[in-house]
Structures are given as C-alpha cells and as structure tokens.
Write a structure and sequence with these properties.
Blueprint (H helix, E strand, L loop, with lengths): L2 H7 L8 E6 L2 E7 H7 L6 E2 L5 E3 L6 H17 L10 E4 L9 E4 L10 E12 L2 E9 L10 E3 L1 E4 L6 H13 L3 H4 L3 E11 L4 E12 L13 E8 H8 L9 H11 L11 H7 L5
Parallel strand pairs: 1-4, 7-12
Antiparallel strand pairs: 1-2, 3-4, 5-6, 7-8, 7-10, 8-9, 8-13, 11-12
Length: about 280
C-alpha cells in the first residue's frame, strides 16, 4: 500500500449523489438526493425544489434555525433516517472564523455535508537524535473505527470553545496532559479532506499541533476513549502506513504531514512526495 492511498481514501466521494445545501444564501454543505427527498416532508423548514436544498429564509436567526432543524432531526431519528444524537453542538459556518449561521448536533453534520473542524496533536520525543511519536489505540467501544491507532490527542471542535481551549480539554481527557504542558503545543498547519460516509458527505478540516514532550512523560487516558498508548519509532509507523489500514482513516494525513515537516520523508526517496504535500490539504 502506498502512502498516497490513504489520501485517496479520504477524498473518495461521488459528487453526483449530492445536492447543494444553503442557508441564507451561503453554500454550507450538500445532502444526498435520498435525504433531500425526505426533507421535502418538512416544507416549513426546508425548500427542496429544483437542484438544491435550502433552509427557509423565514428562519432568520441562528437560534430559530437551530431549533427548527433539531426538531426535524428528532422526527427523523425516530424514523431511523438520521443518526443518534450525540449531545455536542458544532457551529455551522461557511468559512472558519465566521459567526455561526446555526448550531447542529455533531452526529448530524455529515447528513447535511457541513464542514466540521477538529484538532489533532502530535506528541513526540527526541531521543539520541531520533524522533518517536506517542500513538494511541482507540478503545474497543468507540463508534468510529474501534481499536484502530490514533494520534496522541484528537477531537472535534465544539461550539463554545476556541481551538486552544479545546486542545487543552482534549489533552487532559485523552492523554492526562496538564494544562501548562498543553499550552506549549505549537500550531503547525491545517489539513483537509472530503469523503463519503455512512450518513453523507464529510468535508473536514484538521488544525494540527506539535508537542515535544519530556522523555519521562507517559500519556494516561482519563475518559475511556483510549485503551493504550505506545511510543513508536517513525520508521515503524511508516511501515504500518505502507502495509495496511492500522490507523483511523484520517490519522495517516496528520502523520504524513508530520513526517514531511520533520524531514522524515524526502523528495529524493519518496516518488510521490509532491502528491503527498498537496494531497493532505486537498479538501481545504
């Protein structure tokens, strides 16, 4: 398996399956044609005429939109047409930094093809001139890719927190990292992809951070989402990436980017180097 195959996996979708979804004239996402047909049963909230779906203009405030869409989703959950509620709200924006047009339950984000944001933290150690990374193993009861390998810390970006606040929260919960240590994490870039999923389109944006941790530090999970941590040589991680899908689907993008930035992948030895550099940001 080539490294580029992980990027192709994260950018595999069929545009013909989807119709554009807009709010107040803003292109916000995309819904499957089948889901659009189901939304037609709620004409007081959605307009489904023509080759697009839009929220009714009468829903003129973020609060009104949030309440109306949640009411529709609750009806659809009861009918098995929408994913189970997670109870965590995401902001719905056209561009990062915009004020939210509405809030929506995290589980419903791909149903409307809304861009989701998240934070990923590479925790690494320098030892004898070599870099090792702390890799998490996802708990067996995780809904998405149970048991797969993951970054030391990663999490979706909820409403009500800025990126740094979320990174500190996730670092404490997932790896037992104290706030003063998490504060030292360095923002190093943004990655993106767009892929089909069980419930719809996933156009995701990942804000990536690096944190060099002390040699005597060992991460410790506190929220039950991680079953174990292991400190791995970069070469061993690359071997895993080149020999299957041991990692959660989007984690290889973060690791490939890390290896490029730290000179662990070279344009002299990696024939698809340019494709990798471009590919980890293909969905932005």
């Amino acid at each position: 398996m080539a490294l580029i195959d992980h990027i192709k996996r994260c950018n595999a979708f069929d545009p013909s399956r989807y119709l554009p979804f807009t709010i107040a004239g803003h292109p916000i996402g995309a819904v499957t044609r089948d889901f659009a047909a189901k939304l037609a049963a709620f004409p007081e909230v959605f307009v489904t005429e023509g080759a697009a779906v839009r929220l009714r203009d009468e829903l003129a405030t973020p609060e009104a939109r949030t309440a109306a869409v949640e009411d529709v989703l609750e009806h659809m959950r009861e009918a098995g047409s929408a994913p189970k509620k997670k109870g965590e709200l995401y902001r719905v924006v056209e561009h990062w930094g915009d004020g939210p047009l509405m809030l929506i339950d995290r589980a419903a984000v791909p149903v409307f093809g809304i861009r989701a944001f998240g934070v990923h933290l590479n925790g690494f150690v320098r030892r004898n001139g070599a870099i090792r990374l702390w890799i998490a193993q996802r708990a067996a009861d995780r809904v998405i890719e149970p048991g797969k390998l993951d970054n030391m810390v990663a999490g979706g970006q909820p409403a009500g927190l800025d990126l740094r606040e979320n990174l500190i929260k996730e670092s404490a919960e997932e790896a037992g990292i104290a706030s003063d240590m998490a504060q030292k994490a360095v923002p190093v870039g943004v990655l993106g992809y767009c892929m089909d999923s069980e419930w719809g389109l996933k156009p995701d944006t990942l804000f990536v951070y690096d944190l060099e941790v002390p040699a005597d530090f060992t991460p410790r999970n506190t929220d039950g989402e991680v079953s174990a941590f292991r400190l791995m040589e970069a070469s061993d991680i690359l071997d895993l990436l080149r020999n299957g899908q041991s990692f959660k689907f989007n984690v290889p993008l973060v690791l490939i980017d890390f290896f490029i930035r730290h000179g662990l992948l070279s344009p002299d030895t990696e024939p698809q180097y340019l494709d990798l550099v471009r590919g980890v940001r293909a969905g932005l």
